[in-house]
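Sequence, please.
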């Protein structure tokens, strides 16, 4: 995992929001959804980008492990 400084120029694909309801967390839905997003990105043409940026709250340790 790399911590990105989003204030610098970024030419990759940036994910804005992905949330799993608290009652459904811990069931693998976030990991499965992220995999679907990455599969979709691989199949589409998004220019010359070779990176995907995911952000989360620095205190959200579960999300940090997922990313």
């Amino acid at each position: 995992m790399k911590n990105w400084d989003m204030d610098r120029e970024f030419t990759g694909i940036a994910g804005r929001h992905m949330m799993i309801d608290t009652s459904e967390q811990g069931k693998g839905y976030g990991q499965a959804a992220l995999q679907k997003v990455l599969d979709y990105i691989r199949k589409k043409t998004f220019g010359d980008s070779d990176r995907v940026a995911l952000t989360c709250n620095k205190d959200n340790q579960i999300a940090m492990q997922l990313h």
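The longest helix spans residues 29-43.
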